[in-house]
UniProtKB/TrEMBL annotation, chain A:
<keyword id="KW-0547">Nucleotide-binding</keyword>
<dbReference type="GO" id="GO:0005737">
    <property type="term" value="C:cytoplasm"/>
</dbReference>
<dbReference type="InterPro" id="IPR030667">
    <property type="entry name" value="APP-BP1"/>
</dbReference>
<comment type="function">
    <text>Regulatory subunit of the dimeric E1 enzyme. E1 activates RUB1/NEDD8 by first adenylating its C-terminal glycine residue with ATP, thereafter linking this residue to the side chain of the catalytic cysteine, yielding a RUB1-ECR1 thioester and free AMP. E1 finally transfers RUB1 to the catalytic cysteine of RCE1.</text>
</comment>
<keyword id="KW-0539">Nucleus</keyword>
<keyword id="KW-0833">Ubl conjugation pathway</keyword>
<dbReference type="InterPro" id="IPR035985">
    <property type="entry name" value="Ubiquitin-activating_enz"/>
</dbReference>
<dbReference type="GO" id="GO:0005634">
    <property type="term" value="C:nucleus"/>
</dbReference>
<protein>
    <recommendedName>
        <fullName>NEDD8-activating enzyme E1 regulatory subunit</fullName>
    </recommendedName>
</protein>
Automatic annotation (TrEMBL), chain B:
<feature type="active site" description="Glycyl thioester intermediate">
    <location>
        <position position="210"/>
    </location>
</feature>
<dbReference type="GO" id="GO:0005737">
    <property type="term" value="C:cytoplasm"/>
</dbReference>
<dbReference type="GO" id="GO:0005524">
    <property type="term" value="F:ATP binding"/>
</dbReference>
<dbReference type="GO" id="GO:0005634">
    <property type="term" value="C:nucleus"/>
</dbReference>
<comment type="pathway">
    <text>Protein modification; protein neddylation.</text>
</comment>
<keyword id="KW-0436">Ligase</keyword>
<keyword id="KW-0547">Nucleotide-binding</keyword>
<dbReference type="InterPro" id="IPR033127">
    <property type="entry name" value="UBQ-activ_enz_E1_Cys_AS"/>
</dbReference>
<dbReference type="GO" id="GO:0045116">
    <property type="term" value="P:protein neddylation"/>
</dbReference>
Length: 523, 448
């Protein structure tokens, strides 16, 4: 039946069949199904995740009808997990949905092994103490964990996993891999077959800029002691040289060549991000290494030897003005080089696998190919334990955030959310939760926040009275729109984590619903 | 920590609306009155009942608004179901606006949502003036541009060219593509309108016809050749319908033939649909994020319960997570939200002559013009009944039709632009009759 494919068409165009298959295999656990949790899960159920398990021990109250779309009048008094589960099932019958009526805090205390059955756990509306405990459990079991919390007009989203590696990071803008400043022999030979000084005007204006630039770079190097343009003046001269080859002013291919001339000047070799990855200690592989790191190790060898400082060629070219024939043949030249590089990489991967006593065929051709195509765009994300961040945040960073004009509010909200949890642990209620106790709560929250800042070593920093007031005004409310925003962010990150495409956020995201100056805090 | 007081449905929202705060808007007056006013008096229009619209209706209903209306001309399709959570497989083919309104009313009691299954241009301009705020969940530049021009046409300036507050029709606009999106507030006359920052939406790149015909290089070129050139050659007079699977299949197989002929890889049925329909990838999570931001800002604009976004938020989740707030500035010469294009006329100029003038006016280039003055139709192009009723006005002097008012605002609607790029729009004109103005200026000075 072709229907699921049609239903998912608009997202398949983003993450493809492979990404979709990963989603459909994933099993997700949600802790607490208030609006933040329900909205997070809704976005994932629509996208077609494999299975969901909702854990919530509460009953639906009248107040829930004002902020949670998954419950209605008839749900009051019933298990919230059951009601939310039933509604979500209605959205997509391909998803296996179940619920457990139990308080997540109890589950964390009594049954830590429960969590190891899932691909990913989404923990919503947990206070600090439970966050820390759950984080330890999931880290131990190597389960991806994501926290989401809505509190008045603010919110928090935090990913926690030891390491997440990405091959298909699919950046929006990335320099094409054209090797114009160091063409391999076949590309050079191909360029030699084309004469830039042809008198045939039609041929002249259909010579692709890749050929123009390869030839012009060579011409320049021949007259400049083998060097390419490097100074501003030289770069300008180089562009002028291209311009001088135009027969008429409207030759699009020459205009494109001038625009793309910076690709000739761009530095050779690999960028700093990739350098960091191949220098990572994980690239010293053993039998416990993941496929990703085995391929990184092979890549490191390739760059040092066959690659001559470069990664395997990506093998595709952007569209450009050209005759069909030259363009198609040029494309084939790039593809052939990419294929050669891939075969070398494949051999290196096999050898490494043998060395670490693994089946040499255990990493598929398709995966190695994808790795080669994306070698320049690899990403490695690592996340601190929440406990470590909470006990010893990167102090100079925190200080900087707190005093910065643009993100001071977000950093202040971060401190106040943590202070609110301390407050709750001491007074058995959140600041401002009940009317009529505001003044007392404000001064108590203030001293709690000052205490927390002292514990974190930020003695000099102060949180504004207005913001403390604001936090008390929120009184731990869970507003639907804030929950929808925070849940949206959390679900987007979940999709990136499960599909292993695109780069998930780093650090702790603080949603600032006051003026939308939200901030990622790298603590 | 159980709440012992009997609960109300607005338990959480009450904290925001009933309690005073310091980080709030200048108009904020916390209290039950505010909550009840939002519930009973404020009227919100949502434009679009698609990915953003579905979320917006739910979010606004939970933000205390109980008088909502929604307008959308589309019917539900299977490809909507991965994100438009108010629709089920059994709803395919039904009008989006109707189903969306019904589903939200079923689950959020107290909210009334009136649906309009029609084009935005089908509603009279006055329809839009009935709302306190308009929220846009659209995916086309043209539609945004039209609503923007309508909302800006209500704007009136005082004699010092300052916008008159009660005439400002606030808009909140959202848009998404894949993992990216934006939300913005438009207060005509105060913050930039859609047209002031039109450069934020670069026009869609079109392939040159000679590339398609002579030097195709990519799969998309082959598809566009089949779609734009081959179709017309093979089907004389029959219009291509992108929603007809047989038509799409024909374009696909022609594109495959062409690609094989030239040795070009990559033509697939899915790509064919994508290129021909200009499909923008869309997912539930991004729509949820952007709609939530829009609904929150709507609540803030109406209630003042917090600061507002100034004035443009971008969200990008492709590489990590980036949010940014940019304060764009108005284009002082904007034709749409400015004080209006000044038109100086002799008192003898007829309505017909006036309409002809607009066609040649270099800033306007308006064709098929309809004219209204202070809510009264002076001339209407359509429907035929109205055209006939107003036709006799064409030969009367505009000055007479305007009750001999020496200077005032006249609203016109029509098609703007040249050739293929024409689009519906609404423009505000400052009409001044020569030789008559000094009189009023003196009157006003005397009255002050």
């Amino acid at each position: 039946m072709a229907e699921p494919k049609v239903k998912y068409d608009r997202q398949l165009r983003i993450w493809g069949e492979k990404g979709q298959a990963a989603l459909e295999k994933a099993s997700i656990c949600l802790l607490n199904c208030g609006p933040t949790g329900s909205e997070t899960l809704k976005n994932l159920v629509l996208g077609g995740v494999g299975s969901i398990t909702i854990v919530d021990g509460s009953k639906v109250e009248v107040g829930d009808l004002g902020n949670n779309f998954m419950v209605d009048e008839s749900s009051v008094g019933q298990s919230k997990a059951e009601c939310v589960c039933a509604f979500l099932q209605e959205l997509n019958d391909a998803v296996k949905a179940k619920f457990i009526e139990e308080h997540p805090e109890e589950l964390i205390e009594t049954n830590p092994s429960f969590f190891s059955q899932f691909t990913l756990v989404i923990a919503t509306q947990l206070v600090e103490d439970s966050m820390v405990k759950l984080d330890r459990i999931c880290r131990e079991a190597n389960i991806i964990l994501i926290f989401a919390r809505s509190y008045g007009l603010m919110g928090l989203v935090r990913i926690s996993v030891k390491e997440h590696t990405v091959i298909e990071s699919k950046p929006d803008h990335f320099l094409d891999d054209l090797r114009l400043n160091d063409p391999w022999p076949e590309l050079r030979r191909f360029a030699e077959t084309v004469d830039l000084n042809t008198t045939d005007a039609v041929v002249h204006k259909h010579t692709p800029y890749i050929i123009i630039l390869v030839k012009m770079a060579e011409e320049w190097a021949n007259t400049h002691g083998g060097k390419l343009p490097s100074t501003r003046e030289e770069k300008k001269q180089f562009k002028d040289l291209i311009k001088s080859k135009m027969i008429t002013v409207d030759e699009e291919n020459y205009k494109e060549a001038m625009e793309a001339s910076f690709k000739v000047f761009s530095p050779q070799g690999i960028g700093p991000n990739l350098q960091k990855i191949i220098n990572d200690s994980c690239s010293e592989v053993d039998s416990n290494s993941s496929d990703f790191w085995v391929m990184v190790a092979a890549l490191k060898e390739f760059i040092a030897s066959e690659g001559g400082g470069e990664t395997p060629l990506e093998g595709s070219i952007p569209d450009m003005t050209s005759s069909t024939e030259l363009y198609v043949n040029l494309q084939k030249t790039y593809q052939a080089k990419a294929e050669t590089d891939f075969l070398v990489m494949e051999q290196r991967v096999k050898n490494l696998l043998k060395k670490i006593n693994r089946d040499p065929a255990s990493i598929s051709k398709a995966n190695i190919k994808s790795f080669c195509r994306n070698a320049r765009k690899l990403a490695v994300c690592r996340y601190r334990l929440v406990e470590d961040e909470f006990n010893s945040p990167v102090q100079p960073e925190l200080q900087k955030y707190l005093t910065d004009e643009d993100c001071g509010t977000a950093a202040g909200l971060y401190i106040l959310l943590r202070a609110a949890d301390r407050f709750a642990a001491n007074y058995n209620k959140f600041p401002g939760q009940f009317d009529g106790e505001m003044d007392e709560d404000i001064s108590r929250l203030k001293s709690t926040a000052v205490g927390l800042l002292n514990d974190l070593g930020c003695n000099g920093s102060a949180i504004s009275e207005d913001l403390i007031n604001e936090m008390c005004r929120y009184g731990a409310s869970e507003l639907h729109v804030v929950a929808a925003f925070v849940g949206g962010v959390a679900s987007q990150e979940v999709i990136k984590l499960i599909t292993r495409q695109f780069i998930p956020m780093s650090g702790t995201f603080i949603f600032n619903g006051i003026d939308h100056k939200s901030q990622l805090l790298l603590l | 920590m159980a709440d012992s007081i009997p609960q109300s449905r607005s338990r959480d929202l009450d904290k925001l609306l009933l309690r005073p705060g310091n980080l709030v808007g200048p108009t904020f007056e916390a209290g039950a009155q505010l909550r009840d006013d939002i519930k009973e008096c404020v009227r919100v229009l949502v434009i679009g009942a698609g990915g953003l619209g579905c979320e917006l209706l739910k979010d606004l209903a939970f933000s205390g608004f109980q008088n909502l209306e929604v307008i959308d001309m589309d019917r539900i399709e299977v490809t909507n179901l991965n994100r438009q959570f108010l629709f089920r497989l059994g709803d395919v083919g039904k009008p989006k606006a109707e189903v969306a309104a019904k589903r939200v009313m079923e689950r959020v009691s107290g909210v009334a949502i009136k649906s309009h299954f029609c084009r935005i241009e089908d509603k009279p301009i006055s329809f839009y003036n009935d709302f306190h705020i308009i929220v846009l969940g659209l995916d086309s530049i043209e539609a945004r541009s039209y609503i923007n021009s309508v909302a800006c046409s209500f704007l009136e300036y005082d004699s010092d060219d300052n916008p008159q507050e009660e005439s400002i029709k606030p808009m909140v606009d959202g848009g998404t593509e894949g993992f990216k999106g934006h939300a913005r507030i438009i207060m005509p006359g105060v913050t930039p309108c859609f047209e002031c920052t039109i450069w934020l939406f670069p026009p869609q790149v079109k392939f040159p016809l000679c590339t398609l015909a002579e030097t195709p290089r990519t799969a998309a070129h082959c598809i566009e050749y089949a779609h734009l050139i081959k179709w017309d050659e093979a089907h004389s007079g029959k219009t291509f319908d992108p929603d007809d699977p047989e038509h799409m299949q024909w374009v696909y197989s022609e594109a495959v033939k062409r690609a094989e002929l030239f040795g070009i890889p990559g033509v697939t049925y899915s790509l064919t649909q994508g290129v021909v329909k200009n499909i923008i990838p869309a997912i539930a999570s991004t729509n949820a994020i952007i709609s939530a931001a829009c609904a929150l800002e709507t609540l803030k604009v109406v209630s003042g319960c917090s600061k507002t976004l100034t004035n443009y938020l971008t969200y990008n989740g492709v590489e990590g997570l980036h949010t940014k707030v940019t304060e764009f500035v108005r284009d002082k010469d904007c034709l749409v939200c400015g004080p209006g294009v000044l038109i100086e006329l002799e008192a003898s100029v007829t309505l017909k002559k006036f309409i002809d003038l607009l066609e040649d006016h270099p800033k306007l280039l308006l064709t098929r013009v309809s004219v209204t003055y202070r809510g009264k139709n002076l001339y209407m192009q359509a429907p035929p009944v109205l055209e006939e009723m107003t036709r006799s006005n064409l030969d009367l002097p505009l000055f007479e039709l305007m009750g001999k008012t020496p200077r005032d605002i006249v609203h016109v609607t029509g098609a703007a632009g040249k050739g293929d790029t024409k689009q519906s729009c609404s423009r505000k004109l400052r009409v001044v009759f020569k030789g008559m103005v000094g009189v009023t200026d003196m009157d006003m000075a005397g009255g002050a």
